[in-house]
Amino acid sequence: MTCGNQADIDIEQLAASARVGCRESFEQIVLHFEKRIFHFLLHMSRNRHDAEDLTQITFLKAYRDLQSYASGRSFGAWLFTIAKRTALNHLRSARRTEELTGDFVSQAEMPSTALERSDGQKNIWELARTLKPHAYEVLWLRYGEGFSVAETARVMNTNQIRVRVLLHRARAALAKKLERRKE
Amino acid sequence: MTMKLCWLCQKLISRRSEAVEPAPAWLRHHLSRCETCREFRDGQRHLTLSLTEHALAHVASPSQFLHGKIMAALDRDAALPESANNVFALWRRLAIPAFGVLVVLIIWLRNSLPQSHDAPFPMTTSSVASGASEKNSNAGENFLTWGKNLNQPLETELYLVASDARTALASLTETFLPRAYNAEAR
Lengths: 183, 186
What we know:
The complex is a heterodimer.
Chain A (H helix, E strand, L loop, with lengths): L10 H9 L3 H23 L2 H17 L10 H27 L9 H7 L6 H5 L4 H12 L4 H7 L4 H23 L1
Chain B lengths: L1 H14 L9 H9 L1 H24 L7 H14 L2 H37 L6 H4 L3 H4 L3 H6 L9 H23 L2 H7 L1
């Protein structure tokens, strides 16, 4: 199936044409989001291999469930919601495995360890990674991905008030860390 | 007093950073006079700006094969026979009615099982024990509470065991011994 040149078409339009069976449109969506979804899942799983597998599963689920995507809403938020649920399911089963094996997260992959390893010239986001997972997640979705508060709330499966509170706390914690680093 | 007001203002500035509507007049008035709060507001703005600006540099890159892996997985999924997906969808649709039927079946079995269970073994412990079957006219209730009947004084228990043994022996002799011998025994 051909769907024409879609270089200038926005994501919602690409999603609409992918929904009617245009595979090229979905490939463009994958190209647009794969790095961002991978990064988000890397933070959640803390393991590159798991993050790549989860990215693959996320796109597969999105492709299968394209019919359930309501056009007019943010496709990015919808995709990140799938990614988050996929990661949570994975973490749940991984936790069970961890109970059996006692060895799950490679310490070399932990953000705090990575921070200790690197030198003083750090990006503000590397400092943000040392915050609590929820704080980092809300900051990333709001400022990294540029989602609105409503979209962030949808991805995090919570309400807008809680997102605002989380943002407020995360910014305050980050500001404190920045001050401490300056000292 | 001023310190308290500054504390309140700074809390409000931080909380209002996602708000669309303009700040209240008293806050704007305070900001125009208080340098500390102005600095705090600028610091918050700077923080959010640097978070937005540095986000792109922070994004981790996946392996170069990730895109190929995703597309290959999509191709494999598309290559799956349509009938397999249909069968799965059908199973999903049937799951709830099937569960309902199963529940009804279990309830029906629970009510009917004691009646059929009592028939071949009329002299079992549960049925004999202190006339439990007579007291409980409801067969399902009897089935659920049979364990309570076991909690009897020792004499009753011994009597019941002996009674069961006698019944078992009688049925064995009727089944396996010749009729003539049975008649003599009577």
